[in-house]
Specification:
Elements: H1 2-14, H2 16-52, E1 64-65, E2 68-69, H3 72-75, H4 86-94, E3 104-108, E4 113-115, E5 118-119, E6 124-128, H5 132-135, E7 138-143, H6 148-152, E8 157-161, H7 162-169, E9 178-181, E10 184-194, H8 205-214, E11 218-222, H9 226-229
Parallel strand pairs: 6-11, 8-10
Antiparallel strand pairs: 1-2, 3-6, 4-5, 4-9, 7-10, 8-11, 9-10
Length: 237
């Protein structure tokens, strides 16, 4: 054993240049592997952020027409797009990496939502199920969230996000007040906001318009009351 070690060092010492070049090749090879692995991991993280958004782990799947979100208000309800069944939801929840899932419908809120003489400019009206707020990292800051009776008894109640409450009520207390959604009275029962900061990744004009519209506010209503102000059997997101 000792003799083999002595012969190895003797061979290295006798061929200094060859030994140096061999070690240099090994060092370069290991460095190249580390660089490649780091680049791949960094690229994967960038792709993940582009798909999901930095600081957020929620993926939204929506109906598109060409390169733009399908607009129900202008195009009507498309044929052949079924609502998402409970079986489909179970398949989604069973997928790897999925912690929770929620179905919702949405419409652009131009002149659809009013409080007195003030209309919501942009933003969205959203018909949500009972999982939506938790799934999308919203927390109720004032008032209350929706309960099972709101859904079962088709109560016309609404939750506003902070942007919407500021736009419509301009400093007034919104809880208990009545807003109109397409002419139907809805009582504001809660104010919600994102639980953590969200910094969107803007990669296209579509992303830009989506996030700018989001900044105009959102009005949430129970999904069971959606047909009161809009229509039945709309494709869900």
């Amino acid at each position: 054993m000792l003799e083999n070690i002595r012969l190895s060092f003797q061979g290295i010492w006798s061929h200094k240049m060859r030994s140096f070049l061999t070690m240099l090749g090994i060092i370069i090879g290991i460095g190249a592997i580390i660089a490649i692995v780091s680049t791949i991991q960094g690229t994967n993280e960038q792709i993940k952020q582009n798909l999901v958004g930095a600081g957020n782990n929620t993926v939204t799947v929506q109906l598109y027409q060409n390169e733009w979100t399908y607009e129900m208000d202008y195009n009507g309800i498309p044929d052949g797009v079924p609502v998402i069944s409970d079986d489909t939801m179970q398949q989604i929840l069973a997928a790897d990496g999925v912690e929770d899932a929620s179905r919702y419908t949405s419409r652009q809120g131009y002149d659809t939502v009013c409080y007195g003489n003030i209309s919501l400019s942009g933003g969205y009206v959203m018909g949500i199920d009972q999982n939506y707020l938790d799934t999308c990292s919203y927390a109720v800051k004032e008032g209350r969230g929706f309960d099972s009776n709101d859904y079962a008894k088709y109560r016309k109640v609404a939750i506003l996000d902070q942007d919407c409450a500021s736009s419509l009520f301009q400093g007034e207390d919104a809880i208990g007040k009545t807003i109109e959604i397409s002419g139907e009275p809805y009582t504001v029962v809660g104010i919600a906001d994102k639980k953590d900061g969200f910094e969107p990744v803007i990669n296209s004009m579509d992303d830009y318009y989506t996030y700018m519209q989001d900044s105009s506010g959102r009005v949430f209503i129970p999904s069971t009351t959606w047909p009161i102000v809009f229509q039945y059997d709309e494709p869900q997101s």
